[in-house]
Amino acid sequence: MYRGTMLLGASHVIDPSRPVDDRHGPSAERRLRHAGALMFGAGALTLCLVTFTPDPDASDHGGLRLAALACSLIAALLVAWRSAPGPVLHAVPPAGAVMVAVVTALAEPVGLTPAFFLWPMLVAAYFLPPREVAVDVVLALVLCAVTLALFVEPGLRIAMFIGVVAIVGVASGVVVALRAEVLQLVERLRAQATLDALTGAANRWEFERRLLEELQRAAKRRTDFFARIGGEEFALILPDTDADGATVLAEGLRSALARAALTHPVTLSVGVTDRTTSGIAAPDLLAAADAALYAAKRQGRDRIARAPAARVLAA
């Protein structure tokens, strides 16, 4: 299952911190937008601080302040544009790399400015698929190489470029690898929290959560849900099915199980209820199904019993 979650197209935004069923939706896109706004906002603040500190060569301050203004505008746009389309969000890391290249060209002296290529690449490594991260890293390194070749003295170019390659390449690779481990761990923990270890069926907690969900949807779903809720007891939610239909299905299950038991006899006792008579509260439904189940056992086992007031199904 985990591998299936990783086979994503390049248009997907990934947020490893979100639940599995919400990892690629609006929440992930919103957090990418916020991360981009934070990155450009931090860039603007950094540039402003640089231009207001004592500097023997202030010739670059005008250009750096314009770059700070541009970063501020981009940050504000990302904060305000709540419905920003996918292409805009995917352009955040490349745009950050372009801005770092511009600042590197403006800075006098260049100092540690090329190291800031790391910022947009970390954003890409956390939110974007590995192939897209690789493309963004290559773009950043190309921009870095061109900028250093055009605006930095020859004696520093190679050393600076090697430093940027090491910093950006290693950090991006580590984040991508850690993200994959986090995704795998979250998926495994989710399975442990919702599945019964002995049978592989859903556990009681997941069953009750699903039951509440189905009740809230007025039983509009048509997907049955099966779970082990304790010991030798199992439960089945049958959306859009009344007690009569549940009884027919339970009898079919009982007969099929009896036919399949070739070496040892197997019996199935079932308690049936529905919401029309037991009410819509999950505890009432479970209690009614449980009472019907024990009535079936008292009557000799291997039979179906319906609660006097309605029931969803316990084994």
What would you say this structure looks like, in words?
With 315 residues, the protein is mainly alpha-helical. It folds into two domains: 10-192, no CATH class; 204-306, Reverse transcriptase/Diguanylate cyclase domain (Alpha-Beta Plaits), CATH 3.30.70.270. 62% of the residues lie in helices and 5% in strands. It contains twelve helices and four strands. A two-stranded antiparallel sheet has the order 1-2. A two-stranded parallel ribbon has the order 3-4. Strand 1 (225-230) and strand 2 (233-237) form a beta hairpin. Helix 2 runs antiparallel to helix 3 (61-80). The radius of gyration is 30 Å and the shape is elongated. It starts with a helix and ends in a 9-residue tail after the last strand.
Provide the descriptors you would attach to this structure in a database record.
315 residues, mainly alpha, Alpha-Beta Plaits, 2 domains, two-stranded antiparallel ribbon, two-stranded parallel sheet, 12 helices, disordered N terminus, disordered C terminus
Write the layout of secondary structure elements.
Layout: H1 2-6, H2 26-51, H3 61-80, H4 86-90, H5 92-106, H6 118-127, H7 130-151, H8 154-194, H9 204-216, E1 225-230, E2 233-237, H10 243-260, E3 270-272, H11 275-278, H12 282-298, E4 304-306
Parallel strand pairs: 3-4
Antiparallel strand pairs: 1-2
